[in-house]
Amino acid sequence: MEGRLVLKNCSIFRADGRGRAGMAVVVEGGLIRRVAPDAEVPVLPGDWEVSCRGRLVLPGLVDCHAHLVGDLLVPSAGELLLHPPQVRLEHELRLAAQLTASDVETLSRHAMAQALRSGVTLVVDHLSCPGDVAGALDAEARAAEQLGLRLVVSHSTHSLKGTVQAEDQAEANADFIKRRGAHPLVRGALGFHSSWTSANPLLRRLARLRESSGSPVVFHLSEGDHDLAATWSQHFQRVVPRLESFGLLGPLSVAAYARAVDDAESVRLAQSGTCVALGPGAALLVEPSGRALETLYGRQNLMGLGSAGHGNLWDALGAALVTALGAARGSRLVDPDGVLVQLFSDGPAELCSRLFGLPSGAVEEGRLADLVVFDCVPALDAESGQAPHLLGQLGRARAAWTIVDGRVTMREGQILGTDEVALAREAARVLSEVWARARLSDVEAPAVPARGR
Ligand SMILES: [Zn+2]
Q1: What's this model's pTM, rounded to 2 decimal places?
Q2: C-alpha span between 88 and 122 (Å, rounded)
């Protein structure tokens, strides 16, 4: 049996926002068992002591919508982003078609190590590997278990290549969920790409699978005007009512982006309990005019940040700040700091609690022991005891320790049992090979399409 983990002399924040220095946190069996003044918590034989020396301990960060592999395969680049969505997707799909399960394992391991390094302890991933859905989901699960990262992984199935293939992929996704069961760390979710790429038979099949399994479902919701236009022309419905009619919204649904959502739809989303995983960075890059943030926030939707990449939530937070300030200056939003706390902390914590069925998101007794020690000794306001600009203070700090499910995965900046440079080298080799295979398989179409075609 494993002993206790004791975090000594840490700074923590209570629910009232007041900081407390000189605290100890005891972790055992995957949960926080005790939070008390340091002097009251002796270190016992067999304990693992983490010497925090005043550093800040926070609940681990949650990336509500990631593309761990896809973001490595097709990194954001100016030229590509100038193309229309259909062309970008075609390019992504051409590369994803070349992936093997072994490629996915190598690439996701590298991406997960980076996520842990930035303080992320739970990733909700949206994987695209149409050639081997079952093998790729298993491969990603293995990588997460090996590194000790909490993961919920779904397959981004679409029906652009026909509904038979799509439904087979949805079944493989559902089989994976069954195989994982209620694993404490790594679980499956159903997934599809988006409304404009998913025909009715696929959504019907997913709805049935969801009903029988009760599993979460991950998808892109209203990616933008092209999604609305394509959905309307094919189904005579807007995106939110269409997905709602299939029963695909709900408290275990993670709807990414939500760029083109009107006020009435944001009310419906809030009533359904759907978690909206906003990607404000992607929104700025792709469709700067979107007002999703203020529309959704105004209706008390559950919102969390999604990197739409591989776990860099700090970039996403910076983009959220820019977006929230723009909305506040335009008198469309009154509380930009409240928006950031919801996106970065409260919303993601609620999503994690729903997905794993245990309370999370605070350094309190009985909560899930997903914790991060930051190299940050918070400066407190002497009168109120609160930390002004805490997110700003944190954004410049390194994650020193990450603890997931009560286990140390990173110690003083070193991910345990992993040579990160070796992971990066392996990932680079795989990427070069995949890009070369894609070029060979389709010599007619260039890997990065020329603009204006
Ligand atoms: Zn996605």
Answers
A1: 0.94
A2: 28
